[in-house]
Amino acid sequence: MKSKMKSLKFGLASVAVTVAMWLASGCGSGNGNAGVQSLPVLDIGQAMENSTPVKMSRYFSDIEYIPLETSADVLVTDVSMTNIFPSDDRIYISSTPRVGASDVYSFDYTGKNLPFKAKSGRAEGEYTQGLNLVPDGDNVYMIDWNSVLKYDKEGNYLNSFPLDGNGFKFLGRYAYINGEFIYIMEDAEKGEDIITIQDSNYNVRLQKSLGKFEMVTHMRDVTGDGSMTPIMTRSTNPMIYQNNDKAMLLGYGDTLYSINPADGTLIQEYLLQYGKYHRNEDCVEVRAFFVETPQFVLYRAVFSKTGYPNLEVKDRIPLCLYDKSTGKSTRLPVNEEYMSGTPYKACGFDNDLDGGMLFHPICIRGDKMYQLVNAYEFIERAESTGSKAMQEVAAKLNEDSNPVLVVATLK
Fold first, then answer.
1. Whole-number Å distance between alpha carbons of 80 and 75
2. What pTM value is reported for the model?
3. For residue 224, what pLDDT is reported?
4. Are 351 and 369 in contact (CB under 8 A)?
5. Residue 165 pLDDT class (50, 70, 90 cuts)
6. Across the strands, what pairs with 84?
7. b/e for 341-350, b at 16 or more Cβ within 10 A?
């Protein structure tokens, strides 16, 4: 019970931070929809009204459970505070057990721990907070708050380059495609966002204006007690989200774009529709998670508390699926039995492959999608679902074990 309450505490904190960051970023109307009506439509309004279970067998062919090796100096305390970064021969895990710092570990695909020497700190070669990693062959790039640090795959420091400089500020996430970083720099003096493409030798190859933004003040209830607080927000707040070899631009109006890595131009990909949930100021956005496969698009919509005060916490970050063959949008239903963990992850694909627990993927690489499950939760689900595959793995675990990596293969 103590472990459950700890997970719930961190889970709720994670949702609160996600929503608070989104509120602070603002959500302007961005670009219009003229000339893009022929695009595929991610219909959030339709998805919210169509909460239907989706079976894994429709899109996946196989599922595997890999227990991660546990030792005294390699301990991932809670998956709600953890990111995973798959590479060809290993998977990197960034765990944040304390505010302002992360621990990065490495495992092979049998679950064996592999040495990773890089540590958080302030000295040369140390990272401040390893929230984002880029595995690239024999090297690992770590995108820190103000710089990119380069290590070999064992975590030995090689070199680094700054992201802040010349009046520019690094915004949000990044993509790494064909040996180049694609990210957005904010020119605060000009009020302009700059798409920046930089090679792995830290040479800037291209900078292209994405557009202007304005800073405005809104009164918002950020505490939930009815009191209004002035919050300075941007009229647009674009974010890059990488999906295999595509750099998606999210949070930039009612059209989702990808960025052409050759010249930085925007390519229209999807049109967003909101139905009765659309707002001009306190709106809903697609920005927290986006995965595209040949068969479907999986994304999270983020609803602001101010704009949608009647939505429960579990409904504010729904996981939605767009099926490319039917053109229909569906919301994956919330399973109340999974609410003891992170609320917005209490949903996923119904696992009819082996009768196991819900599959809630958090990233994709190639034809594989990945999930991490806390050991105590995995043990409980193995017992309640009756999955023989899960039970075999659970027999090797205890509540203090490292998480289990779940790997599902797409058809």
1. 14
2. 0.85
3. 66
4. no
5. low
6. 93
7. bbbbbbbbbb
